[in-house]
């Protein structure tokens, strides 16, 4: 802690109203409208995980709040509009000694926890995630472990305590965002380049983080802990595991996001495989496309304008309609929506944010049943909108059909829905008394007639359709083999999604028809083939046409180098590269020989590149698949052809590719670069016919 900040804290102390500590939350407190919280062990069964996640899955919609010292400059520094919002210390390269005195200016006299919680509740939000600490390190609660907290400001109130209590009174679950990265803590590493303070100790920082987490959990009883800033090189998988386990040991009911550990895949945010901790994926500013595996929990967090922290000049607010449709889109894919507000330096929500939230609340007041407690759509796409669904007592299922764009003829179609509707009619969720909408079967589709335009909500009209059983949708046949290359003929199996439909296929690239020659479910592939398959119901095509392309190739002949020694040659390059091609012409920093593809020669932590060249010895002729996992970018070339392209700036990401190789030696080249953040490079292979990747034994590399 810089001396002057300590002095400042002492000077300010005299004028403080001492904060009255909020009593710790009643352990049994919980909103009546949510499934109860359950205590499950750290090592839990799938059923126990489901029980712990139940309230969060049902909630579907939450409020994010970014508020702290950065709300005072609000994107202005030294009279200039710099932008940067909550990142301003980093974007403007402000020294902690120049940033930390903002503490003496923090006096948000308009802060009203009750109002914030009410706005969230009225918008239909069921939890609220507030920044206990963002990357700047300032703590919004009186912490026993730092002076860089709200207690050292003119506004010495327990902000998190007031908010937690207000949320509970509104039936909103209080949750906390807590940054791992900390630009001002004296022990946090790495330092910013312009921060010349000596010292720093990672292990001591983790200890400090853990003590603060204990304090936060015991005092405020958060439903979710939302970590962030995990991507810097200092934070390890081991730190992630220990932190997750610590949090769940203090309160086994807590739900923790995947940024606690190092398994997040970039801004898309899902967790890659490999035993990483974290209960849900965290796409940031993006909504995943369909096709997410079922049972994966995720939450898209998004700003309402362009900034997380307050910036008066950022008026690029999304419309109410856009926000409602994003919520619906996310719910239709089985995710949660965490929508951000950045209150200003006085503690006020921006007027535009209040207006949008009130609008979302108006729509929710009629349609919340189509969001809360619903599950993902059974349809992959619907031309006119989205679908969410919920189980009905007695084994039926209720579909909520969200009409974004009313078709010209006023009829919405549910393609391939084979399940019988419970009644002959559907009705409007917002106006059940307004009359019944006719439902008709049309082959494999169901068609519903919408009411006249006047009845339609321009944002999203929700139609309820009850089914006698869970929706059975014929989406398309399943082909078990992926597109790819092959050497020897093989057999592809096609599976029908349902016994009531027939399969038809073509191998000449044409659309399958009911008369198509091939009606078998096993097809021998002996030449380059485009296989297309569709389902038919009563002779009518239903669902999607599924396509696979299989290319017959000749294995690439091996080479016989003049001299053969063990290992690979490597060369390093220095610079802030963003693509593999960026260092093609760069001067070589150092060179040498290494036994296998690893980073043992690494010149420094950041902004470098390595190229490996040599030969790989292939034991048997066949299709060899290679996987390259790197942070940041990498490529694998064999015989000058690109086998794995994992190029570009990203966090840890694995890509794979296949090539047909003859037994023997083949020229290989791996290029890798690291910008900032963690560094990682792993090359593995999968022999012909194998489904898994294994390390490549070092004796296979030659030069
Ligand atoms: O708190 C808000 C932002 O301040 C914070 N997260 C939200 C919730 C945020 N920090 N950084 N960013 C957003 C953007 C940073 C992206 C990157 Fe990376 C960090 C690019 C490279 C390192 C994440 C990790 C994406 C790729 C690797």
Characterise the protein shown here.
This protein is 17% helix and 28% strand. With 703 residues, it is an alpha+beta fold. The chain folds into 4 domains: 3-17 and 33-370, Glycosidases (TIM Barrel); 385-467, Golgi alpha-mannosidase II (Immunoglobulin-like, Sandwich); 478-552, Immunoglobulin-like (Sandwich); 568-702, Jelly Rolls. A 7-stranded parallel beta sheet has the order 7-6-5-4-1-9-8, sandwiched between helices. A hairpin with a 2-residue loop joins strand 2 (76-77) and strand 3. Helix 5 packs parallel to helix 6 (159-170). The chain is flat and about 75 Å long. It starts with a helix and ends with a strand. Residues 1-18 have low confidence and may be disordered. The structure holds ligand H79. Ligand H79 binds at residues 86-87, 228, 231, 266-267, 284, 301, 308, 650-651, 677. Residues 86-87, 228, 231, 266-267, 284, 301, 308, 650-651, 677 line the site of ligand H79.
